[in-house]
Write a structure and sequence with these properties.
The complex is a heterodimer of chains A (330) and B (443). Chain A is mainly α. Chain A contains 15 helices and two strands. Classes of the chains: A mainly alpha (330), B alpha/beta (443). At the A-B interface, helix 1 of A face strand 15, strand 16, helix 9, helix 13 and helix 14 of B. The complex binds iron/sulfur cluster (2 copies).
Chain lengths: 330, 443
């Protein structure tokens, strides 16, 4: 008989295949189509912003964990990579690198590690970074290079406001919707990626592709994106039906700004969204309502980031509200 | 038609039914058997023999010590060499009757002929008495004394017998083989259960990954009154009684309640077979079919072996050496117990012996919970395992009880699924043990 000892542990003795890094890298893969489109439209600038954002996030995670928290580094788990990618996706392609450094620091230090790291952060770190930048550098954060097919020099890009920004400004000045329509790209361009905006907001189609991939891989469920986007459509649809001279159409709201990016990639962040399907529906509807309220009545043209962050804050309450009903209590 | 299953939660681990085509083989009686006096749920049995007594196969060696307890019979013929403590599958030393084998003489009353005895004229109480005297307990692993379940309590109304042919644990195939090889016997056993409980209807649930068993059971069930075969979608833990009852009847057993609360009386196919043998062949429970399997076993087998046989004998028969054995498990990979030594005896509740090679024997490193909610989604009891585990870790027993932690029946789906490799169930068990103690102390 062999002298080697047997392993003793409690059941279960087998483990499913899926791991945290697999989920995280799955999200990264889902972001690829949008990244490719943004490179096509914004060229070198897009590559630069993405690379630096990812590198800074990984670096800060490493440094803070090593020298301040003195814990084992977790940069391999893929979560800092996603924060970097999502942060980049929320920035214009001509964004100055030194500001990017500050954004990455805010995302990692304030957004994630100050709460204890992966899994403990109540807010989506990339959004914390973005909102921090928006408050510090409002000018750079709201003027966007216009996308131009295969523009591989970042010098010749023209900057302008986003479609949302243009529309909001024009409505404020009392211009007619028909006139505003001439100022902004058509719906098809908005859908395929011919509109000014941050890297990841540029093509709704590419974002949807990524979302479908995540659904297929069971990384996300349909509940948050559908309830979020659905609420925006219904709410803006009602306003538009009331007065189509004063409000933009639901389709416009759907295709512009960070709605797709936010609903598919940011609001669905597992760590900062509710645990049950029911909770996720409440969360999605809340995000949708807040987005429209900010877009239409708020001071900022875009409300997706704020909406998600605000809803992140109430996730613990939503979790209590939407507790699953244990078997045998019906 | 969409196949039925239970409503919430569940997982589908790789099935790995390596021994599925290995017919049941008899394993020779070992030189020595150690028969624990506590192999069932309930009070340990009281020994009837002492050192030096001669016994035959089927001689009662321990009797029931209370209402929920069981008779135990000698599984070999020979001499009682001592009554001593041996390490059982729990890893603890428990009292056992140790018998030295000499030949293989059976009690005369036992009918060992292979021929099927289909007809019976017994009434309910006679059947129940025979099941009780034969020491039958639930063979699916629950080991609850069967005669108790056959007596429908006053005031409760049963409407159907549910028979568990699900075998949802990966690797295990003993029930599957019994269904293929002892089909008529099982069906007679089910008829006996129906008679004993005075029910006209029985439904045998079998997962769809056993089409051969479904088809042969269906064909033969036509010769029996009131027995229906119901194919079910493959889903773990469908063999758990509450989940199976929901899959088969659509009814939800209340939390803390029993199957009879929704009118179901539930038995495993292996138990139905044992009931057939007890009643029709006068054979007490002295042997059972055990699957010996795993990636470290060269010849995965289904062995009919005597209760009390050391696990090592089964491994040897299946060609397994201990060299590459990393872990030996009594039962399936989801709910089985890791054994501390291969000398542990087979008991009434042993459905399989699973040997994991070294590389599959250890756990992966734990990382932080990413709140993916996958544990919540898969929990068949619709609990929040991430929360329960956290409460267990922090000793928050009151909250653990409020969050219905005691409803967890340790199916392991949550730990299996967690992408962060958190041993959720370990901490839930801690909570259950502590809260169980607190609840008992209130009485
Ligand atoms: S082990 Fe308990 S908590 Fe975990 S899935 Fe099974 S029943 Fe739910
Ligand atoms: S499955 Fe694991 S990582 Fe996911 S919520 Fe449950 S405990 Fe957390």
């Amino acid at each position: 008989m062999s002298k080697e000892l047997l392993t003793i542990s409690l059941s279960p003795h087998i483990k499913g295949e899926e791991t945290t890094p697999q989920i995280m890298y799955g999200v990264a893969i889902a972001l690829l189509p949008a990244l490719i489109v943004s490179i096509i439209f914004f060229g070198l600038g897009a590559i630069k912003v993405t690379l630096f954002a990812v590198a800074f996030c990984l670096l800060f995670e490493f440094l803070i964990q090593k020298f301040i928290m003195k814990v084992e580094s977790s940069i391999g788990d893929g979560s800092a990579l996603i924060t970097g990618l999502l942060l980049a996706f929320n920035l214009p392609s001509n964004f100055p690198i030194w500001m990017l450094l500050i954004g990455a620091l805010a995302a990692m230090a304030i957004g994630k590690l100050s709460f204890g790291g992966l899994g403990n952060n109540p807010f989506n770190p990339a959004l914390v970074g973005r909102v921090f930048l928006l408050i510090c550098f409002p000018v750079q954060m709201t003027s966007w290079p216009l996308p131009k097919l295969f523009s591989f020099s970042s010098l010749d890009s023209v900057t302008g406001a986003t479609a949302l920004g243009v529309a909001k400004e024009a409505i404020k000045q009392g211009q007619s919707i028909a006139h505003i329509k001439t100022l902004i790209p058509g719906n098809l361009d908005l859908f395929l990626g011919q509109a000014g905006g941050s890297l990841g907001e540029v093509s709704a189609l590419a974002l949807i592709l990524g979302g479908l991939y995540m659904l297929y891989k069971k990384i996300i469920t349909w509940h948050i994106p559908v309830s979020f986007i659905g609420t925006v459509i219904i709410f803006t649809g009602i306003l538009w039906a009331i007065n189509c001279e004063q409000y933009m159409s639901p389709l416009f709201h759907l295709l512009t700004g960070g709605l797709m990016l936010g609903a598919i990639f940011m609001a669905t962040d597992m760590v900062t969204s509710p645990m049950t399907k029911k909770g996720q529906l409440i969360f999605g509807v809340g995000c949708g309502l807040l987005t429209v309220i900010i877009r239409i009545f708020g001071a900022y043209p875009e409300g997706v980031s704020f909406a998600i962050l605000l809803m992140n804050a109430v996730v613990p309450l939503i979790n209590i509200l939407s507790k699953p009903k244990p078997f045998g209590t019906n | 038609m969409e196949l039925k299953t239970f409503k919430k939660g569940g997982i589908h681990p790789e099935e790995n039914k390596l021994s599925v085509s290995a017919p049941i083989e008899s394993l020779a009686p070992p030189a020595i058997v150690s028969i624990p006096i506590s192999q069932h749920i309930g009070a340990p049995s009281k020994p009837l023999v002492k050192k030096g007594d001669e016994v035959k196969v089927g001689t009662p060696i321990a009797e029931m010590s209370s209402f929920i307890s069981a008779f135990i019979h000698s599984s070999v013929s020979g001499t009682v060499s001592k009554i001593d403590d041996v390490v059982d599958s729990s890893g603890l030393r428990k009292q056992a009757i140790i018998i030295k084998t000499d030949g293989d003489t059976w009690e005369k009353s036992i009918d060992r002929s292979p021929e099927l005895k289909k007809n019976f004229t017994l009434d309910a109480s006679e059947i129940i008495e025979k099941v009780k005297k034969a020491g039958i307990v639930g063979l699916g692993g629950a080991t609850f004394p069967s005669y108790v379940k056959l007596m429908v309590p006053k005031g409760k109304k049963a409407f159907a017998v549910v028979i568990n042919g699900v075998e949802c644990e990966p690797y295990l195939t003993s029930d599957h083989r019994i269904m293929l090889e002892k089909t008529d016997e099982i069906l007679v056993g089910v008829s006996l259960i129906m008679k004993a409980t005075n029910l006209k209807k029985a439904i045998i649930g079998i997962e769809n990954n056993k089409p051969d068993a479904i088809s042969i059971m269906r064909t033969k069930a036509k010769n029996f009154e009131g027995i229906e075969i119901l194919p079910l979608k493959v889903m773990y833990p469908q063999g758990a009684e509450k989940q199976l009852i929901q899959a088969v009847t659509g009814k939800e057993v209340p939390a803390g309640g029993l199957p009879i609360d929704v009118g179901a009386v539930i038995f495993n196919v292996g138990t139905a077979f044992a009931i057939y043998e007890a009643v029709q062949k006068k054979k007490p429970l002295v042997e059972r079919v055990v699957t010996v399997t795993g990636k470290a076993i060269p010849k995965p087998s289904n062995l009919l072996c005597r209760i009390g046989t050391p696990v090592a004998n089964l491994l040897e028969q299946a060609g397994g050496s201990l060299e590459n054995a990393g872990k030996i498990i009594n039962g399936g990979p989801m709910m089985g117990k890791a054994l501390v030594t291969p000398d542990v005896p087979i008991t009434k509740g042993t459905s399989g012996i699973l040997v994991m090679p070294k590389e599959l024997a250890t756990r992966k490193k734990e990382s932080p919970c990413i709140r993916c909610a996958k544990c919540v989604t898969v929990c068949p009891m619709v609990l929040e395992p991430y929360l329960l585990s956290r409460l267990g870790r922090k000793y928050l027993w009151e909250r653990f009880e409020v969050e219905k932690g005691m409803n967890c029946f340790e199916c392991g789906s949550c730990s299996f699924t967690c992408p962060a490799n958190i041993p959720l169930l370990d901490y839930i068990r801690v909570g259950k043990t502590e809260v169980g103690r607190i609840i008992r102390s209130r009485k």
